[in-house]
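[Meeting: bench + compute handoff]

Bench side (C.D.) handed over the final construct sequence. Compute side (W.E.) agreed to return the predicted structure before the next meeting so the bench team could plan truncations. Sequence as handed over:
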Amino acid sequence: MLSKTMEAALNEQINAEMYSSYLYLSMATWFEDQGLAGCASWMKQQAQEELFHAIKMFDFLAERGGRIILDAIAKPPHEWGSPLEVFEQVLAHEQKVTGLINDLVDLAIAEKDHATNIFLQWFVSEQVEEEDTATSLVRRLKLIGDDANGLFMLDTELGQRRFTPPAETQ
């Protein structure tokens, strides 16, 4: 049985994942306005992935008999100074989400909630990948600097991304 504390914490994380999706959609609109359709597409794919994370937690909470209570999603920012600034915020945001996931794991361990702990391990691994991807993109954008050709090439590459939910959870 899920404790009320864990139920509340998972509900908060569902909201955080929904915010992440909303944030990445906002970033997509900024990239669209900048004429960077590939970066916009990458952000839309990222938004879908975050929504998938929220639904994965939603389903787990329901399976454990918890009550799902959806809260308002905070308004995300909508202006950035450069593509680098956007991806630096992506990295900072993913680092924050990693901290939230780690806090959930700590709570599951403290409560001896083995089922939730096991469930959360997928998210722990996912956050390693998220931070690595964001770090790589920040580094690449720093290398590109003001080179329009480099930005064009990266934009084209990022436009190729497609989100496919993991097979084990479809």
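W.E. noted at the follow-up: DSSP finds five helices and no strands in the chain. C.D. will use this when planning the next construct.
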